[in-house]
Amino acid sequence: MVVWALRTHWHVGADVAGFSRTSLDQTAKVVKQKTGKDIVKLQGDMLNPGHLKDAVDKTIKAFGKLDVPVNNTGILHMAAISDMTEADSDRIIGINLKGVYFACKYAAIHMIPRKNGVIINIGSELSFTGAANFSAYAATKGGLFTLSQSLAIELGPHNIRVVTLSPGPTRTSMHDENLKNPDFKRTLETKDVLGRMCEQEDLTPALVLLASDAARMVTGTNWSVDGGCLVK
Q1: For the chain, percent helix, then strand, then coil, each to nearest 5?
Q2: Are 178 and 206 in contact (CB under 8 A)?
């Protein structure tokens, strides 16, 4: 899912549009319960650049501007490279890297004339380390970090910051099937120095800080929220 956030004063929150291939009804319900705000629900496919352009256009139509696109998307297919099919690898690369590239493009086209904004790309600890049976996924996340670096250089003169936030193993639906394997679950829970998986709520404070003016000199870099995976 890609989240398009319209930044307001952070003490009162932000107006949010969400873009997803699947239903956003549950997400909208949770946001409404916690904040009292409605979100703009946008349906589309990360594999279709036209859908991404349409999502940006509809967000701007709804809010008048786009301040903080958060490219939070990724699919995972565990397989040895000898078993990885072309279709599976194309889908991983298309969603995790190409899709984010075009999401950044269409956001930047709007943000450049305004000379303001922050693009946050959600990476992974595997942006920086290899892992057996994760080669395609790791390659896309590594590419995502260098994409963020390149865009930080390119868009910096327009007062647009671009950063990567990289979680460690996080309890999301992407891992639901894998976590049924007790050995795999144990591996994820012991990868970091804190001995537990990251929860989605652990990422929120870092995201809010990166998006705010408190991080106004932070660009072209990565923030790891991984419980120390990279130092272990």
Answers
A1: 50, 20, 35
A2: no
Q: Tell me: the pLDDT tens digits for 147-201? A: 999 999 999 999 999 999 998 777 776 666 666 777 767 766 677 777 777 788 8
CATH class as words, domain 65-231: alpha beta
The helices-and-strands tally (H runs, E runs) of the chain is 7, 7
Which has the closest alpha carbon to 128: 226, 11, 42? 226
Amino acid at 162: V
Contacts of 194 (CB under 8 A, 6+ apart): 227, 228
Contacts of residue 220, defined as CB under 8 A and 6 or more positions apart, other chains included, come to: 148, 149, 152, 153, 156, 162, 163
Structure tokens at 177: 């099937």
For residue 61, what are its two tokens?
A: 């139509």
Q: Is the dihedral of CA 208, 213, 216, 219 positive or negative?
A: positive
Residue ranges of domains in the chain: 65-231
Distance CA 177, CA 158 (A): 43
Active-site residue numbers? Answer: 137
Q: Are 154 and 105 in contact (CB under 8 A)?
A: no
CA 201 from centroid of its chain's CA atoms: 14
d(CA 75, CA 175): 10
First to last CA, the chain: 30
Q: Which residues pair with 15 in a beta bridge?
A: 6
The per-residue pLDDT of the chain, averaged, comes to 88
